[in-house]
Write a structure and sequence with these properties.
- This protein is α+β, with helices and mostly antiparallel strands and 79 residues long.
- The protein has three helices and two strands; from the N terminus they run H-E-H-E-H.
- It is elongated and about 50 Å long.
- The N and C termini lie far apart (45 Å).
Amino acid sequence: MKALCDLLAGVRGYVNFIVWNAVADLPFAAPPRDRIVALVRRVKAGGILATIRDSSGPDADAACGQLRLRARQAGANAG
């Protein structure tokens, strides 16, 4: 996190952390909420504005990564 804070020192803006949304057939998962909150606190302690973006997509499998994978699979099945 120090490298991120050093990189953004003096920059007007903020870091918007986007939590990973599970996508079928991919081996990734979101970290626990307390770990995400701890990460954001570390960035804020480094003087950087930061937020966690809450997503309404996971319940409907409609987050960006989920939609992209579904579109790719539909395209592969169409050909």
